[in-house]
Amino acid sequence: MVTQIPDIVIGRLPIYLRELRRLQDEGDRLTTSSHELGERLGISSAQIRKDLSHFGEFGKQGTGYHINYLVDQLCQILHLDQTWPVALVGVGSLGTALAHYDGFKLRGFEIRWVFDIDPTKIGAEVNGVHIQAVDELEATIAQHEIAVAIIATPASVAQDVADRLVAAGIKAILSYAPLHLTAPSGVHVSYSDPVTELQRMTYYLG
Amino acid sequence: MVTQIPDIVIGRLPIYLRELRRLQDEGDRLTTSSHELGERLGISSAQIRKDLSHFGEFGKQGTGYHINYLVDQLCQILHLDQTWPVALVGVGSLGTALAHYDGFKLRGFEIRWVFDIDPTKIGAEVNGVHIQAVDELEATIAQHEIAVAIIATPASVAQDVADRLVAAGIKAILSYAPLHLTAPSGVHVSYSDPVTELQRMTYYLG
Fold first, then answer.
1. Burial B150-173 (b: 16+ CB within 10 A, else e)
2. Which CATH superfamily is domain A84-196 in?
3. I want to staple A116 with a disulfide (CB 3.0 to 4.6 A). Which of A40, A71, A91, B20 is the partner?
4. The predicted structure's pLDDT at residue B58
5. Is the pTM of this model over 0.90?
6. CATH of domain A7-77
């Protein structure tokens, strides 16, 4: 595999995969084209061809892409030929919603461990998963060699939680706390903050 | 104001604003620098200076940025010198979590109307807001001239909801449904999909 592919290209691959899976679900044909994908995604077909060309030759002039084949290839590239077990920290209303979200399992992830600091929650279950004390974070992550975690705690404790996750071996963190987290190189952090998303749109509203 | 500023620059302004507000909350000083902001955000100081220079001269060599002044300026640029009332469609577990999220009000947004299609939910309240039938979407948006909406419905109905929102006058949509939405130019759409965020990180995991 080629190295040094821009992060922005990597970020589009899951979008392509998601749309290809929608084409699979629609089920009416076996192939698609960069043109069709581009139309459906609001991305130029040239961009899609260029992005995919970093990883090989997936399409043929005239026939386009075989949907199932491209799905398989993208899953391999993104390391989704396995299910990633995920640790979730924070079972407030957002954490609870995430624990119940059925979109993870179909797309390569499964929340299998859940942690909270609130003694009234510890020992209860959320969507069939036992809520553990945050005290057990390090031992659990080490024992199960967990690589992926989601932070759904208040902002005030998110950096501390991130530090503990990283020290225990976590390599990828999706954080819903509204702040930038500091993590060593080699650890990947993504963010979801509805307010920054809304604010980048209100710029364009008069 | 200069036009044609790249969208990626606009997308960083809310991140700067969020960090400046954290500095305000820490409360120990009046000024900061592009260097300090960059360190805290993992962005180069040159990038920050370049981004801000699109909008004017906010800092001085040697003294840096006055935090309160820069916050005010960014709020003006992002049109956050007002609170944006928001309509939320879909009161499943994620929609409920969003309706309860207290991070909106402090940062320029307020979920003031909530819609669902489920007759058992309609008429109930979520965080003090009356849940209306989706049938009332168009009339409510028109009457209150609502510009901003959040979609937290299943993917299967999200495009239909988006079409109705846009037809009724909505100009900015934040969608939690895992699919690309088609909208006319002049309507801004942002997305939050935890799975695409996780997948872009697993690319880097062996």
1. bbbbebebbbebbebbbebebbbb
2. NAD(P)-binding Rossmann-like Domain (3.40.50.720)
3. A91
4. 85
5. yes
6. 1.10.10.10
